[in-house]
Amino acid sequence: MQTHLSLRLDGTPLATNTSSPRHIELGLDTFGDITLDATGAPKSAAHVIRDVVEQAVLADTLGLDYFGVGEHHRDDYAISAPDMVLAAIAGQTQRIRLGSAVTVLSSDDPIRVYQRFSTLDAVSSGRAEVILGRGSFTESFPLFGLDLANYEELFEEKLELFTELLKEKPVSWSGNLRPALHQQSVYPAMESGTLKTWIAVGGSPQSVVRAAHYGLPLMLAIIGGEPAQFAPFAELYHRALKEFGQPGQPIGVHSPGHIAATDQEAMDELWPHYAIMHNRIGKDRGWPALTRAEFDATAGPNGALVVGSPETVAKKITRVAKTLGLSRFDLKYSHGTLPHASLMKSIELYATEVAPRVRANLSQE
């Protein structure tokens, strides 16, 4: 993708987007982490998947806006086929929007992804979305016979094809890594219009520019550091949209968190399970073991973890929404072995106590 965009992100402070969204969608994301049962033993992947469906039904019943399911190919996560889980959820829910968090487009086929999500849109009566990304794990590449040396080119080429599919016209396209298409139609067509498609971004300015180039909504994955550090990315995105002649698009945030009755209870409940998850991934990536002090700092007022009582969490989400000009905030509520009952309680508090506070806070601006 050649953008030729005269934008930079070189450490020079950029203006923070201080606009206050008066309406914000509040959603949930899960990777289907393998949790513990009442005896402290790990549940089967099948049991966890059924739990995820139950969690989504609760989210729908309580009026949340979005439920996202992530894709992984590891033994610590149960879900490798998010669209299948989402289809099951669609059959038991009425209004909540359903999508991925994320779909690893680099190791998938754009046509099959589009077909699966247009089918999900049909069975859910127009509630499907897809969030496309490269993913932070690479297990899918050898699994599907792909060369990691093509990591960047795979995503760029497949995203280019996917954006052609969004036009819902016969596609003529050619690239380097798959056969060309000539006036090829793809089915089923979307009944409710264009499939809403987000681009997930971690910490790459080029990825922000890519999303703007295609005129697609931006989903910032804020899993470390301070959310305020992402303000330059939001500003870069708005500037890039203008320079590419694209209309304004929403910005969302995916961020991990947990809610309990008090701040201390939420921190103490999450800590051991979060540490297990962090250290297991860190062992593969060469990270040092997470300390409680580091966890507490990340869960503090300025950190990426959204942890605490409903009041504390609502204040943090409100602050992030104002700083980045968000249209949606998705709480990644599952964390390693944290049990199903704790997840259900966190979802309940998020929907019934956090969401009203956030909306009230934003409506006062």
From TrEMBL:
- Sorted alphabetically, which keywords does the UniProt record give? Monooxygenase, Oxidoreductase
Q: Which molecular function GO terms apply here?
A: monooxygenase activity; oxidoreductase activity, acting on paired donors, with incorporation or reduction of molecular oxygen
CC terms in the record's Gene Ontology section? cytosol
Q: Which residues cross the membrane?
A: none
**All copies of domain Luciferase-like, residue ranges:** 38-323
Source organism superkingdom: Bacteria
Entry protein name: LLM class flavin-dependent oxidoreductase
